[in-house]
Design a protein that fits this description.
Helix content: 40-55%
Mean pLDDT: 83
Number of helices: 9
Number of domains: 3
Largest sheet: 5 strands, mixed
Amino acid sequence: MASVLKEVEARLGEGWRMQWGPPPRGVYLLKEVYMAEPEEASAYCGEGDLVVVYIVSALEGGLNVVYGRVKPGLSKCPMATFMRRFAKSEARQAVKTLIDFATGVDKVPLFQINPELIRFAGLCDEYPVVCEDPVVVVSKLVAASARRQRQREAEPPPRPQTWLLEELVKILREKIELDAGFVEIVKKIVEDPERLRGCYV
């Protein structure tokens, strides 16, 4: 348990204070549907060093932005809350710190992040996929795909490999040097390519 708490503390850096117990009320970074129920976490706490960790960016004015993988509630697990105060003007940094921890340390995918918090913090420029309405994102992806397809169709077809032609010319030169009669065969093939095809049928 102590090693987990030290790792969290090290990842967060200076200015964070740890206290035992649940987090204060606030707005959660993760969408509720992606957070585990307290009972689910309790099932894992019977034996072992499991601790439920919450990270709180406390903004001036009383808004707490909370990151945790378990919904708040009664649990058999010990709870540790890391907290840091931020000025209201630092809302962007406060929310970004939690997103960086969630996506970097816990490997939470961006679609699990609450888009309202990203909008509130002014982070839509960094996370446009999260801020946009899903219908808009899909339509942009479809448009980009169609644009790439049109570009591919507009490009000229790829030219044949020139090295193959160079090798054939080199072989023909060698044959002609060895047998002067081979020149007549090449001339007849050039004059009537269908004659060569007849040889392979």
